[in-house]
Amino acid sequence: MAKLVLASGSPRRQELLGRMGIQDFDVRVPDTEENFPQGLSPREVVCYISREKSDAAAALCTADEIVITADTMVFLDDRRLGKPKDEADALSMLTALQGRRHTVCTGVTVRQGSRILTEAESTEVCFRPATEEELRAYIATGEPMDKAGAYGIQGLGALLVEGIQGDFFNVMGLPILRLSRMLSTFGVTFFN
Hints:
Structural class: alpha/beta
Largest sheet: 7 strands, mixed
Distance between the termini: 13 Å
Order of helices and strands: EHEHEEHEEHEHH
Radius of gyration: 17 Å
Shape: globular
Helix content: 25-40%
């Protein structure tokens, strides 16, 4: 099997590859800007950025290596919620999300040489109503500060989530079922 490369510094994505049974992979982080053309749908945005990351990562890899890139964003009413700039920004995001549904989209690109496959996964997340005191206490933990939408569903942020519809792992940053299907088309096997 070809060498796998995760072109992401995200510890969550590294953990999720491990959950898929993939232990032998390199991490190489390309230097990219997360810019995209205006007018794209949420799914198109994450696919565009994932593909841009893949193009940048290709320069760090050989043609026979299988490279995985991803981009996850939170959208509330088609408005993108990135990583918070500061605690006030985190409070603003969490306040907007509480008691409402939002969408988490991840674009994933798998590439080997000139063969490139890009797909997107969307998951609907519903937050419970929360008090400002609860949100401030959550922000004080520091957990929200490096996460799109200012929460981590795999951590204390789970206490804000009333329910989800779709892939839980997508909300963590990597839709592992979709990725496993994509990787299988590149000859990567599981359960053996």
